[in-house]
Amino acid sequence: MFAIEQPLLVPLPGEPFETGTWLGPRVDRYSQVTVRTNRYSVPVRLVGRHVRVHLHASHLVVYDDRTEVARHERLMAKGRTRLDLDHYLEALLRKPGALPGSTALEQARSAGRFTPVHDAWWEAVRKTHGDATGTRALVEVLLLHRHMSHEHVVAGLATALQAGALTADAVALQARKFAETDDHRHPVDRQVWPVSNVISLTERRLAQLPADTRPLPTVTAYDQLLRLPPRTAEGNRP
Fold this sequence. Notes:
Elements: H1 2-5, E1 21-23, E2 32-35, E3 38-41, E4 52-55, E5 59-64, E6 67-73, E7 81-82, H2 89-94, H3 103-111, H4 116-129, H5 131-143, H6 150-163, H7 168-185, H8 201-208
Parallel strand pairs: 3-7
Antiparallel strand pairs: 1-4, 2-3, 4-5, 5-6
């Protein structure tokens, strides 16, 4: 019966049909928005502002004006919280004591983004530099994930830990070395432009000029200046 009905159906639209719902929550003082009884984190710089949330069946996207600032998997139960540790890093630089035991850290561990290598390096740097300074150094390392791949940062942490280099700069240096190694191992295919018969205008002009028969320049006439007697202190020649 569907085969009989199909030719009579209206064709599908050419543009995709948007099934998401737009919401406009306000970011609370915990840098979270409430969407359908659940809470989701956004960057701390947006505290107190209204944002736009595009809610889909399996995920949601948060926009500040037209810029995407957060993306979360949608929570299906009620009264749950989903936090992204990266959203709180700027605040943790000022208050490093809030990191240990935080929900955002535990969720990052569960998701595999905060690895045992992170924990081992963090423990070592806290023993050397103290809790506050060590935690700030860890936060600086976590900020590297924003512009470097997760694998390179973890490899940099492991190498720095083995070498006893307990600074964020050392981790960044090692991570960049791994990134450069991968770049050389997998070079980007560059387009090779074909060699064209480009005519040099300079060569063309020189080829059309008549032969230069003039003698080469000489400075012999200036040698007579060398034979003049030197001037006296008053500026006169003797």
